[in-house]
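Hey Z.,

So I finally got round to the heme C thing we talked about over coffee. Here's the setup:
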Amino acid sequence: MLTKLQAKVFFLGGTAVFFGIFLVLSFDTHLKVPNQTNAANITPAVAAGKRIWEENNCMGCHTLFGEGAYYAPELTKTVETRGKDWLKIFIKDPAAMFPGQRKMVKYNFTDEQIDNVIAFLDWCGKVDLNGFPAKPPLRDKMIAAAPQMAVSSGPPPLKKPVPAVFTTATCIGCHQIQGQGGAAGALIGAPPLDDVFRRYDRAKLVAWIKDPPSIKKDTKMPKLYGLAVNDAQLNEIVDYLLSLNPETAATPSAAPTAAPAPAVQPK
Ligand code: HEC
Ligand code: HEC
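And the result:
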């Protein structure tokens, strides 16, 4: 047994040692913070974006760095996974990107405010969070399974149901297909895709979707390949677009000229 004095020394000594360790670790963490957060990259746009984030209570629905509410997606890596072009369109009119599905609030932000929000989210995505958030292990499998689900509970019966990949890959947010979607794209001149098989063969479609700006320099069509579209999805998209050709069904269109009465007319 310890004497009273020994117990006192043990208690005070132990407290001092562990308090010391605590101080050293705290100090060490604070030294690392500016590096891990890339503090030097906090531009005025990032700061303005953070203010918008707070004033609009985005955290009432979203988590960022894992903090916030669990109603809506975690946004730490959203710039990496979605891309800035996609986010710009999405924030301007969230419902247009996901016709007929659950909706995010439509804020009437100016273009500058949207850029600021994206700058802020971009900065967040580059903070070194020691591996957070972990990549969802099932994500790719789920996306692969998604086309088996009907794309929407929306109104008109379709001649040829639009596969879910047009929604997950965001195409339908900009392009009208079989009477669905297209709202966000109307503003920037995205044509309906029902008869694109008349203008593009397989090779041209693949090349275009893979990298639109390499084909048309100042196009407003974002490069979604690598962000929202992988190779399997690209194939599925192209197969579907070519399958809308009433003459050749699912095979690549060889002779796209001389069209009989178009099978599907937008509107
Ligand atoms: C009322 C709840 C709510 C609020 C408030 C809200 N959001 Fe959302 N947000 C959503 C929902 C729901 C989605 C998922 C949309 C979908 O999948 O159709 C979403 C999706 C998003 C996405 C796309 C994420 C992705 O990777 O798909 C971004 C970016 C986003 N919100 C940003 C914001 C910002 C910035 C604010 C604040 C200015 C905000 N949100 C406020 C509900 C909300
Ligand atoms: C942000 C809006 C937007 C999204 C999302 C989008 N596009 Fe586009 N797309 C456009 C615009 C705008 C054009 C017209 C391009 C131009 O002429 O500069 C276009 C053109 C095209 C064309 C050529 C059409 C023609 O008749 O000339 C094809 C094919 C196409 N997009 C396919 C897709 C596919 C497939 C997806 C999904 C992976 C997609 N787009 C997503 C905006 C978008």
